[in-house]
Amino acid sequence: MATEETLVLVKPDGVARGLTGTILARVEAKGYSLVDLRLVEPDRERLEQHYAEHAGKPFYEPLLEFMMQGPSVAIRLAGERVIEGFRSLAGTTDPTTAAPGTIRGDFGRDWGLKVQQNLVHGSDSPESAARELQIWFG
Ligand code: IDP
Ligand code: MG
User: Fold this and answer.
1) Which is catalytic among the residues 26, 87, 104, 121?
2) Predicted pLDDT of residue 1
3) Which ligand 1 atom minimizes the distance to the CA of 124?
4) Can you give 111-124 as a three-state secondary structure string?
5) Residues 6 or more apart from 54 whose CB is under 8 A from it?
6) What is the CB-side half-sphere exposure of residue 62 using CA atoms within 13 A?
7) What's the CA gap between 32 and 99, in Å, rounded?
């Protein structure tokens, strides 16, 4: 069986705050492999595909606006059980209550905005990973 892959994004807040290297260091320290990595300024169409499951939710439009504020770093990451493993490294969605020791728990917080600026994205299932890797890496 081929090693599992996931899509990780360092979102615009992570890139703007200069946390890309810190986040990559955690991923590498965990022992996952960088397969591909690129700086991307996604257009709305790409983000609509990526976040299709959230269309219509109250945070959907602010989320797309946030994701178009600047470049993200897209990473194709590989390793055994990397999908759930990266989600564990990232921490829960709300950065205020994400556990200390996680990326979101250590570096994220509530900035009083309409969307949670929580530094990273990680695919949540093998199906999502395949779909999202196609969207960001073709
Ligand atoms: P996840 O990134 O932890 O998988 P999702 O539920 O898939 O979380 O939501 C996608 C993104 O939308 C989150 O990472 C966050 O940036 C934003 N978001 C999710 N829920 C809320 C909310 O209730 N208020 C504001 N922003 C949210
Ligand atoms: Mg999600």
Assistant:
1) 121
2) 53
3) 4
4) CCCCCCCCCEEECC
5) 60, 63
6) 9
7) 21
Q: pTM for the whole thing?
A: 0.98
Question: CA-to-CA distance for 75 and 90, rounded, in angstroms?
Answer: 14
pLDDT tier at 2, thresholds 50, 70, 90: low
Taking the C-alpha atoms of residue 123 and residue 130, their distance in angstroms, rounded to an integer, is 9
Phi/psi for 44 (5° steps) reads -60, -40
Name the residue of 116, 123, 131 to mutate for ligand 1: max ligand atoms within 8 A of Cβ: 116
CA dihedral of 46, 120, 34, 88, whole degrees rounded to 10: -130
Mean pLDDT score across all residues of the chain: 97
Please report, as a single letter, which amino acid is at residue 6: T
List the structure tokens of 88.
């564990």
